[in-house]
Amino acid sequence: MNIRRAREEEAQSIIDFQIDMARETEDVDLDRNLITPGVKAVFSDESKGWYFVAEIDGQIAGSLLITFEWSDWRNAMILWIQSVFVGKEFRGRGVYRALYEHIQSIVNNSDEYVGIRLYVDKTNTDALKVYQKLGMDSEHYGMCEWIKS
Question: How far is CA 75 from CA 68, 69, 85, 115, 143, in A?
Fold first, then answer.
């Protein structure tokens, strides 16, 4: 398995993953005309984030997006994992673990980053189990949001 930064020409795979993920985890149909420029914006402006992919036998098995949060308490950045998806045919093979450990190594080898966060739909118990197994906890913070409609 190869973990690496995604390339712009792989945007379509990431778009398809996000559409599948939204449908599978939240029963939401994303608008391809909205998500396509949203994904492409990350490739054209790295301040928005970085996509990483897991590749197995030349196929993209999974992906995630990293975004950034400045922590004044820690005087450093926290990396947020978002838009996680592993293709059904690759699940149970350690794809997310490999992606997570890659991000963790970035944090461990940098003075610029101090931690990793992610949010997960609280009904997505399978994902919660995976995250907890990797040492992440959901005990400390809850999340509130307001999204303009």
Answer: 13, 11, 30, 12, 22
Helix axes 11-26, 32-44, angle to 10 degrees: 130
In a domain, 148, yes or no: no
pLDDT tens-digit readout, 54-107: 999 999 999 999 999 999 999 999 999 999 999 999 999 999 999 999 999 999
pTM (predicted TM-score): 0.87
Tokens at 121, concatenated: 């739909």
* Token pair recorded at residue 85: 């998806």
Task: Tally the domains of the chain.
Answer: 1
CATH code of residue 44: 3.40.630.30
